[in-house]
């Protein structure tokens, strides 16, 4: 069986509180976009994991796909061994949630392939153990998220009338480091209300709290946002803890921008 985990962007992101468990409370809107990995699993005599495409840092044994397999294996010991192949296309350490998507899709793949009959609620509980962003990818529709990102509520938000550009400058921003740079604070506005307004009103209101610290450490990332606005984006922001920056353009009106040759650029028209 093969599935195609997609990425997410954050529209507004407020870090509101540091918790005793070391995590932070936040509020954000997750929006899925079609930049995809490919995740294939076939039954095999022993558990094997391999990846191609963008190299995934760290040990293969720590890959979130394997963590998802082991998590389900604890509760379903009858699961056979798998040969798992991940083709990595979603930039890593980019704030696009690629690792979390792989983990959530691995849960879904095993559930479907072996007809475990897991409810959405059960999948959400497993996903929350794998990463703060993971539960969103079980729902995979526009969502308002709170808690450490795992409390999600589907939202009516349809941006299919716009085109998107995602620009990844190749900088890997460590999520834990980015949270440490922030002083949590109460949001200055009601995120859900702003998201309900036309995209053209977001520019001066909708804020990603990570931008200040990440742009200060990596000015090239802030420059991308300026270039996207200069090219006609109606809204631009860094996604998650960076380093990818998103631009929302009027439908099919994405300007040609000459990016540094090392940047990876995705357009969704
Ligand atoms: C920044 C976001 O991308 C916004 O969507 C997410 O909150 C990050 O979620 P994620 O990558 O799934 O994060 P996790 O793998 O759960 O956590 C990575 C590290 O980020 C920090 N972390 C993460 C989420 C959160 N709400 N508070 C935190 O402080 C913790 O130091 C944690 O060890
Ligand atoms: N399948 C995977 N794909 C990508 N990274 C993985 C995977 N499994 C484990 N990781 C580890 O997770 C780290 C961060 O990955 P990811 O790409 O999800 O970060 P991110 O883009 O910052 O996402 P987020 O928005 O969730 O913070 C990587 O450095 C890598 O070591």
From TrEMBL:
Record-listed E.C. numbers: 2.7.1.148
Metabolic or biological pathway, per its Swiss-Prot or TrEMBL entry: Isoprenoid biosynthesis; isopentenyl diphosphate biosynthesis via DXP pathway; isopentenyl diphosphate from 1-deoxy-D-xylulose 5-phosphate: step 3/6
Binding-site residues, ATP: 91-101
Record keyword Cell inner membrane present: no
Limits of the GHMP kinase N-terminal domain: 63-138
Enzyme class: transferase
Top-level taxonomic group: Bacteria
Entry keyword set: ATP-binding, Isoprene biosynthesis, Kinase, Nucleotide-binding, Transferase
Active site (record annotation): 8, 133
Primary role: Catalyzes the phosphorylation of the position 2 hydroxy group of 4-diphosphocytidyl-2C-methyl-D-erythritol.
Family label: Belongs to the GHMP kinase family. IspE subfamily.
Protein's name in the database: 4-diphosphocytidyl-2-C-methyl-D-erythritol kinase
Organism, as annotated: Chitinophaga hostae
